[in-house]
Every structure is written in structure tokens, then in C-alpha cells.
UniProtKB/TrEMBL annotation:
<dbReference type="Pfam" id="PF12146">
    <property type="entry name" value="Hydrolase_4"/>
</dbReference>
<dbReference type="InterPro" id="IPR051044">
    <property type="entry name" value="MAG_DAG_Lipase"/>
</dbReference>
<dbReference type="InterPro" id="IPR000073">
    <property type="entry name" value="AB_hydrolase_1"/>
</dbReference>
<protein>
    <submittedName>
        <fullName>Caffeoylshikimate esterase isoform B</fullName>
    </submittedName>
</protein>
<dbReference type="InterPro" id="IPR022742">
    <property type="entry name" value="Hydrolase_4"/>
</dbReference>
<feature type="domain" description="Serine aminopeptidase S33">
    <location>
        <begin position="131"/>
        <end position="290"/>
    </location>
</feature>
<dbReference type="InterPro" id="IPR029058">
    <property type="entry name" value="AB_hydrolase_fold"/>
</dbReference>
Length: 322
């Protein structure tokens, strides 16, 4: 079994009817001294269950096999992206159907100061159109810089702006364990390091510079701006994660447990048992449509969105990112 397989801890009374492998750990050694009371060996049980995604409707067996790849590491995420690149452009969505043509794009990798290979991309206006300003994008937790933002970046570039984006380590096509954020400030450091190089480009000299953040990327953008307020001419926030609402946070007791687990086993994954579509859509037909579309997005985003996976250390650090 691969190390990245999600682990679920269950008590004996809540064993799942699905296939599982019980592992017992009996006490093997008696205490090295005599006592008046003799304790019986305790037995704890750990249930390990490997989840297999249901096939995505409308895809070939080959593409389904690729979509089911272990996405923990960059080389498999890059394989998924390459396999679904053409399908992404054919999605029935305004961002892809109405994307302007003639935009100059460039993709490249560069190794940051922490030794991780980072995926970068740029969108530039058509030749002959003067550049008004540069826009640097920070994506959210369940996103990358090459899916929905692809259409948005083309629209912004068509208006005369140069657009730049990067995948954080552990996201999209960048190196790192998938979705794992050991420390939130590391994201801020990576963004500052990369966009400092971008802002120093000769073709952008003297032009206004804006940082654009969406969802968790909004929190990253805010912290970037707080660190270097004089290096940006403006900040654009789309649904920024300034704070997690208290009514959706776990109880204080659960947060304390998660904080402890984040130190003991920071790369373990939290799994949402209920399908996200079940929470937001009442009509079965719409729920099925959204579920199938979400599965396709999940494959293209290199992210198990339907299972809504978070590393424990990330979950604990996000509420306290400021």
C-alpha cells in the first residue's frame, strides 16, 4: 500500500462495512518488576482503508486510469495535466469558450531557494499592444494557475495587461507533496521570491504592479502586501480567506486534537465523508451533473476535490494565518 493512501482511525464499534485491514498491537513484554496488580494486555486497532474513485462518466478507460493516479507527487500531476489539456479547452464554460485568441503564453520551471521546482506561466497581450501594468496571481487551495485562471488570464491580457502566475510547492505542477503546507509563511516567502524576479524584468520597468489573490491566495496576497507595502501599486482580492467563519470551525477540543496531530503526523489527511455536491444541491439531476463535472475538474486540477483532502498541518495553520 502506498504511503499516500488516506488513513482513517475508527473505534471497534464503528467498523465500516467496506473492505478494511485491521492491525493489532498487543503488548509483548511484561514489566521488569513485580507489582501487586497485573494488567491485561491492551489491544488497539487501526483500520486502514484505501479508497478508489468511481469512474468519470464520458471518459475512456485510459483517461480514467490516468485520473486515478496517485497525485501526491508532481510527475503524476503533470501527466494528468498533459492528458486532459485538450479536454480542458473543450469544456462548455464561458471562460474557455470566450477566451480571446492571439494571447502570447509562456510556461517554464525554476528552482526556488528552498530547492523546489516551481511551475510558472505568463500571458501577454497580442504583439503591438502596449502593456498597461503587470498582474501577479496567487491561487486558492483547491486550484492551480492553469485551470479556470487560464481563461481569466487571457481576458485580462487581452485588455493590455501582462499576467503572471505560479503554482505553490505541492500544488499543480510544482514539486512537493500534494496539498501539504508545512508552514503558511513559506507560501508567502515563495510568492515574494518569485514575483520579485518578475517585477525586475526590463519589459515591465516603470509599469504599475498589482497582486491578485483568490480564496486562500487572498490571504497570501494580504500577507505579501503587509510585508512589502511599498512594492505594489494595488491589490485585487476575490473572495479572500481573511478569516474562517466560526460556525464552520470544529470545536475547541477538536482543534486542540488537530493541533497535536499536526505535530505528530503533519502529513496525514482529513477526509470529508459526504460528497460536496450533496451539501449544496437538492435536485438529484443537478447534483449528478455537478458531481460529474466536479470529477472532471478534480482530474484536471490535479486535486481530489470530491474527497476534499487537507493535510492536518494545513488545516491547523489556515485559521491562524495572520
Amino acid at each position: 500500500m502506498e504511503l499516500s493512501v488516506p488513513f482513517r482511525f475508527r473505534s471497534r464499534n464503528l467498523l465500516s462495512p467496506s473492505t478494511h485491514i485491521p492491525i493489532t498491537y498487543p503488548s509483548k513484554h511484561q514489566p521488569p518488576f513485580l507489582t501487586k496488580f497485573v494488567n491485561k494486555p491492551k489491544i488497539s486497532k487501526l483500520t486502514v482503508r484505501a479508497q478508489r474513485r468511481a469512474p468519470i462518466e464520458g471518459l475512456s478507460d485510459e483517461l480514467n486510469a490516468i485520473a486515478r493516479c496517485n497525485l501526491d507527487f508532481a510527475y503524476t500531476r503533470r501527466r494528468v495535466r498533459a492528458a486532459f489539456a485538450d479536454m480542458q479547452q473543450q469544456l462548455d464554460h464561458c471562460l474557455f469558450k470566450n477566451a480571446p485568441a492571439g494571447i502570447r503564453t509562456e510556461e517554464w520551471y525554476e528552482r526556488n531557494s528552498r530547492g523546489l521546482e516551481i511551475f510558472c506561466k505568463s500571458w501577454m497581450p497580442k504583439p503591438g499592444i502596449p502593456i498597461k501594468a503587470s498582474v501577479c496571481f496567487c491561487h486558492g487551495y483547491g486550484d492551480t494557475c492553469t485551470f479556470f485562471f487560464e481563461g481569466i488570464a487571457r481576458i485580462i491580457a487581452a485588455s493590455g495587461y501582462s499576467v503572471f502566475a505560479m503554482d505553490y510547492p505541492g500544488f499543480g505542477l510544482s514539486e512537493g507533496l500534494h496539498g501539504y503546507i508545512p508552514k503558511f509563511d513559506y507560501l508567502v516567502d515563495d510568492v515574494i521570491e518569485h514575483y520579485t524576479k518578475i517585477k525586475a524584468r526590463p519589459d515591465l520597468s516603470g509599469l504599475p504592479r498589482f497582486i491578485l489573490g483568490q480564496s486562500m491566495g487572498g490571504a497570501v496576497s494580504l500577507k505579501v502586501h503587509l510585508r512589502e507595502p511599498n512594492n505594489w501599486d494595488g491589490m485585487i482580492l476575490v473572495a479572500p480567506m481573511c478569516k474562517i467563519a466560526e460556525d464552520v470551525l470544529p470545536s475547541d477540543a477538536v482543534l486542540k486534537v488537530l493541533t497535536l496531530l499536526s505535530k505528530v503526523m503533519p502529513k496525514a489527511k482529513l477526509i470529508q465523508n459526504q460528497d460536496i455536491a450533496d451539501l449544496f444541491f437538492r435536485e438529484p439531476s443537478k447534483r449528478k451533473l455537478v458531481g460529474n463535472f466536479a470529477s472532471l475538474i478534480m482530474a484536471c486540477l490535479y486535486n481530489e476535490m470530491n474527497n476534499h483532502l487537507f493535510s492536518i498541518s494545513c488545516f491547523v495553520s489556515l485559521p491562524n494565518c495572520f
